[in-house]
């Protein structure tokens, strides 16, 4: 990895983003984009290289900042998610950008008829990226890499909740980038709502549906296109023929990633009615094994702040008060939940019903709700009664039951037998649908999100469409139009007959 001075890229005087307002930074980047034109593959690759170096060179300081922001967050998780976790997609972007940015000939044979058409993949200009607090670097750096691959400049706003982590990135970014290329927006520049008002060329947001709606509304006032990567209550279904013990182990682990503070964590699970008791026992057994201690355990991720701690505890208490049954893993000698450490014990809820707040709210914490089902249709109906989730978990074989679930539900993705595997694949899109988001990224999908597919047509035909479509219309034009209508009617009748024979 190389820093800009070593890579031969002009970076100015290592100016901090905080010496300018957000609006000034936008104008600086836009002017640079116009001045320099569309960057070549070498420039794009170099920018992605430096983005990787920014994380890798400062990984220890990043992990310390993340631990301080959360209260406790294991270094292994921070490395895996917010440093190493970015490298797979960034490396793929870097290796593929030269191929992706080439013009595409759409129909070569038409050139023989005097009509050529091709497709350019042009950058949009300046991209604004707003990140969340749960993975403050992965969910800003990876889309930034896609934006660089597509040839854009980037204004990046990590979450103000993880302020120490943002400070680390803002401090070191000028060592790798000119503010003309990448500018880090901090709380000193203003709030997220201020950032959403910027007249960038594309706004990319990851966070809650409620805030996402506000971002989309502000961007819409300026006709700025948006990509929204949102959350949601992700359901899981255990197939009747699946191993309950294995399903419980998987879902217990998946629920506790980052203390349950992941937009892809399973929120609630459907288990065959006759196996609910075994399933809940196995989940509690797995959590007890994984967390022999919690309060002094540096590997047990704290809830990010007091507000979220109180919200999650409130959801549990409300459910219990209205008749739900609570099972928690509380190690001997510990008093949990603990407000000072912001640690909530792994919690399993059964008997949850309509009217309980946890039925509606995304938990985003260490709580798993279990529902019994007799027929798969019950689970499908329950899932469809809520907003479309970001992902739907399935535990069992790739069988007719899974096909039934896929055909009769909507979600951003389906994850079978493991946690968020599609995150690791640059061949699959990452994104939601409906309430869980719009648009997607990762791999080539990210490049397309931050590019404009620009059509180019060149005609050398002796006949002009402009002449054919403007007055005066001659008998020849009438004959041509009637011939077209007759042809289309024949095609339609043929299609109807063909379809009827199937």
UniProtKB/TrEMBL annotation:
The keyword Oxidoreductase applies. Keywords: Oxidoreductase. Signal peptide: none annotated. GO terms for molecular function: aldehyde dehydrogenase (NAD+) activity. Belongs to the aldehyde dehydrogenase family. It comes from the Bacteria. This is Aldehyde dehydrogenase. The keyword Cell division does not apply. Residues 39-456 form the Aldehyde dehydrogenase domain.
